[in-house]
Design goal:
rod-shaped
Length: 659
């Protein structure tokens, strides 16, 4: 050593220093206090050029050209910079504890080589201000993989405080045939694969707010579907459960479909626009009921509530169809419709004072039934029939030609009314029996009435111009051509004194009244013996009145008598009571209203207030209100039935009325 050294400590005889070996206190001298040229490397804490059993205190910096190996803890006071590689521990039991914050990036020196944690030792929590995961093009695995094994804890939980920014934003503009979000949940019982709970009271700023928005807005993606739900298991594909309890007035909608297609700038392409396309295909080996659309609307039990099952409004097109059905029956109010349109309930077309035309076409050209609301008239065109009792039966009303109306019955035609008024300008033909009072014409304006017999020329006629009743025989020969009037009794055991027939003569309208209005003359046939198989003795009695009741005036003992006005008329002419005679919708397929023994009212309103046609199911009756007409052959023609006023019913024909 070539420095000036001051030795102030005491050495023993072996020169062992008991304190500091060397203390450099002089300002002059060499800069190297201790220096050794020995190059022995240290392989332990007992080998090397300098060996000390104690510690080493270094006030200034220390530079080590080789490796540094420390047995024990290393504490660094101040910043530590390691220029080379850094290895912590040499066994998995070694630990690294950071009491300080990390103030730099942590970047691995090899791509896709090192992990943070492993499947056995995992980090409890990771806190980051921003987590960026960049998948390398050659990674060969997912950018982010979350394996959640705690069965009763949430796999990924996001607690977001965003107000105007998106919480989860996925930009997958490069995806072509893959799925942007792929969820599989093969063990679900009562859980859901996707659950969204929107409990926000905010209705939206500047408009409505949507819980879920799905936007498919590329006009060129003609075959793209915005939302597709495929359910291959379970009995329900989509359930929409809408509940609204707010008391504020609002229009509440369970399902709202807004389909708009703007008019293109050019071109004449054919478009088929469908708001909702429902395609149901079902098959089964047992009993299968397939329903395309099931609408169940239940109104409120309190307050005033109008429940509408289906509200269809169509307009603004060249041709508008509210509903088109094919391939099945339509049932309204009935679960199993028996015809193309089966309505179990009241059917109404229009409202009072505002009706609509309804026409039913037949199988023959030009044949239809029309309720003409403008004319308040039900028209059966051409020779369409109004049939009763059964279809195509003999009980019907039909116009066999223009101006010719027929009322047909298989056996009997009954007309029941206090007065039957028939107005015929030319003639009335009756073929059959009349079992009530008949009045033809009015006072001072009568009409001819003719009753034909089976033989040619035989007839009985009231000649209104002659004010006479004519009875004419057949034209075959002189013996059979005489006119004949026969009075018969219905007695099955005729006794002596029985009146078999009687004719009375009277002036009942005599203004003086009294005896002048009594029966003035009578003719009757009276049995002169009890009738047997070989006895029919009869007298013909003519009675006249003299200031009192009639008294017998003439009696004939021949076999046929004529009696009128007797207490017990016995022969052919017996007049009792009064008889008066006076002269569309479109549907393809059958229409059934109600079922046998359970019908429903059907009402057709016309263009005039209180004018309508009603099938009253309670009374099994077809009603044409007020003076609504029942027309035949052609609409608005002269062949009709009409009530001119309350209690007065009219049957009209253009030329001929056949009963």
């Amino acid at each position: 050593m070539t420095a000036n050294v001051a030795l102030t400590d005491t050495f023993d005889q072996w020169r062992v220093k008991t304190n500091e070996l060397i203390v450099g206190t002089q300002a002059d001298g060499m800069a190297n206090i201790i220096k050794t040229t020995d190059t022995t490397n240290s392989t332990s804490n007992t080998t090397g050029s300098i060996i000390t059993a104690g510690g080493i205190g270094v006030t200034k910096s220390a530079h080590i050209g080789g490796n540094l190996k420390v047995w024990g803890d290393v504490t660094t006071v101040g910043d530590t910079t390691i220029s080379g590689n850094l290895t912590f521990g040499d066994a998995s039991t070694d630990q690294v504890t950071f009491s300080a914050d990390i103030n730099s990036n942590m970047i691995p020196n090899a791509n896709l080589t090192f992990n943070v944690g492993n499947t056995l030792n995992q980090w409890a929590n990771t806190y980051t201000g921003h987590l960026a995961v960049t998948q390398k093009t050659d990674s060969g695995k997912s950018a982010v993989t979350v394996t959640s094994t705690d069965v009763d804890q949430i796999g990924i939980s996001v607690v977001a405080s965003q107000t105007t920014a998106d919480v989860l934003d996925i930009a997958a503009d490069a995806v072509t045939t893959a799925k942007v979000i792929d969820i599989t949940a093969d063990a679900l019982t009562t859980g859901s694969a996707l659950y969204i709970d929107d409990n926000s009271a905010i209705t939206g700023v500047g408009g409505t707010r949507n819980t879920v928005d799905i936007l498919q807005n590329n006009a060129a993606a003609l075959a793209a579907t915005a939302l597709k739900v495929q359910s291959d298991g379970g009995i329900t594909g989509i359930t929409l459960d809408k509940n609204y309890t707010d008391v504020a007035a609002a229009t509440v909608t369970g399902l709202h479909v807004d389909f708009d297609r703007t008019v293109p700038g050019s071109g004449t392409a054919t478009f088929t626009d469908i708001g909702i396309n429902l395609d149901v295909n079902a098959a089964g080996l047992g009993t299968t009921t397939t329903t395309g659309l099931d609408i169940d609307v239940v109104g409120a039990t309190t307050g005033t509530h109008t429940a509408v099952g289906l509200d269809v409004a169509v307009g603004s097109a060249d041709t508008n169809y509210a509903l088109i059905t094919s391939g099945g029956n339509v049932g309204i109010g009935v679960a199993a419709p028996a015809s193309v349109l089966h309505v179990a309930g009241t059917v109404q077309v229009g409202v009072d004072d505002t009706g609509h035309d309804v026409k039913f076409f037949g199988a023959t050209t030009g044949q239809y039934m029309l309720w003409d609301e403008s004319a308040d008239e039900l028209a059966l065109t051409l020779d369409s029939k109004l049939s009763f009792w059964d279809a195509a039966g003999g009980e019907n009303i039909v116009a066999s030609s223009d101006g010719h109306l027929e009322v047909n019955a298989g056996t009997t035609l009954d007309i029941t009314a206090p007065t039957v008024d028939i107005n015929a300008s030319t003639g009335i033909t009756l073929d059959g029996s009349i079992l009530s009072t008949v009045t033809v014409g009015v006072n001072d304006a009568g009409h001819d009435v003719t009753f034909y017999g089976d033989a040619a020329g035989a007839l009985a006629m009231w000649d209104t111009s002659a004010d006479s009743l004519l009875v004419r025989g057949a034209t075959a020969d002189a013996a059979g051509s005489t006119g004949r009037i026969v009075l018969q009794t219905a007695q099955v055991g005729v006794a002596d004194g029985d009146i078999l027939g009687r004719v009375d003569f009277q002036a009942p309208l005599e203004t003086q009244g009294g005896d002048g209005a009594l029966v003035s003359a009578s003719i009757w046939a009276e049995a002169d013996a009890t009738f047997t198989a070989t006895v029919n003795n009869t007298e013909l009695v003519f009675a006249t009145a003299t200031n009192d009741a009639v008294v017998e005036g003439m009696r004939l003992d021949s076999g046929g008598q004529l009696g009128i006005g007797t207490a017990t008329p016995a022969y052919g002419l017996d007049v009792q009571g009064t008889v008066g005679i006076t002269g569309a919708t479109t549907q393809i397929g059958a229409v059934t209203v109600g079922v046998d023994n359970t019908g429903h009212d059907v009402k057709f309103f016309g263009a005039t207030a209180s004018q309508y046609m009603l099938w009253n199911q309670a009374t099994d009756e077809l009603v044409l209100a007020l003076d609504g007409k029942l027309s035949f052959w052609d609409q608005g023609g002269g062949e009709n039935i009409i009530a001119a006023s309350d209690g007065a019913l009219g049957i009209n024909a253009g030329t001929t009325l056949t009963l």
